[in-house]
Amino acid sequence: MAIEYRIALDDHHQFSYRVELEREYDPAQVGDGLPKWTRLDYNQCSNCPLAKDRYSHCPAAVDLHRVVEDFHGLPAFHKAQVWVRTPEREYSKQQVGLEEALRSLLGVIMATSACPDLAQMKPMARNHLPFASSHEFVLRTISLYLTRQYFLLREGGTPDWELKGLVDQFKRLQLVNQAFWQRIHAICEGDSNLKAFLAFFSLSSSMTVSLETQLQKIRPMVMNTGAVS
Asked: What distance in Å separates the CA atoms of residue 1 and residue 20, rounded to the nearest whole number?
């Protein structure tokens, strides 16, 4: 099962990526030719659970390095045509800024990496929606979390209907986000990668600092306010 991205720039340069959703990561097979910023101890996340004696490199950084370096030095306002193919359907968007295109691509790569913290986002990647708006991101995230709580209830567990666990989950992801920003900040000459990461991180932070605000924004999308009870 894979998701394919093709990004064509106005100058006729084209980049293609195939993201296997269930790919294996063997820390012993990581090559020596990877850039310094992919090493585990390079701005390592403060909450990273990986042992340095087993992992020489950050799994998410290893997966991301090709995309980051492909767009190294390109400005975010650069326009592109983007095609995305998932197992279920195809998407395309014309004259989209690199920031938006990369945000979707980087997000699905990170969510399917071998990073234990980012793996919490894997269900979103399995139902990938390119170019998702902030409202769509919030709605999909909360829907998946509440679905998980429903199955937990059915299996005899204690569900979290107050979304406290979701907030805690995104607080951990915020630490990952901050560390990744430091990883790539020094090596990105242009701003396409930086702005893509910043947009991706901003979506995540909205789930911790303003969850109630985000809930009120999506309420009209799921409630029929004109219904008679």
From this structure: 6
Contact between 77 and 97 (Cβ < 8 Å)? yes
Q: What is the DSSP string of 137-193?
A: HHHHHHHHHHHHHHHHHHTT----TT-HHHHHHHHHHHHHHHHHHHHHHTT-SSSHH
**Per-residue CA distances from 54 to 26, 62, 184 (Å):** 10, 15, 23
Report yes or no on 227 lying in a domain.
no
Q: Which of 65, 161, 170 is nearest to 117 (CA)?
A: 170
Q: Which domain holds residue 42?
A: 2-25+35-222
pLDDT, one tens digit per residue, over 167-183 is: 888 888 888 888 888 88
Residue type at position 15: F
Q: How many domains does the chain have?
A: 1
- For 60, list phi and psi in degrees, rounded to 5: -70, -40
What pTM did the predictor assign? 0.86
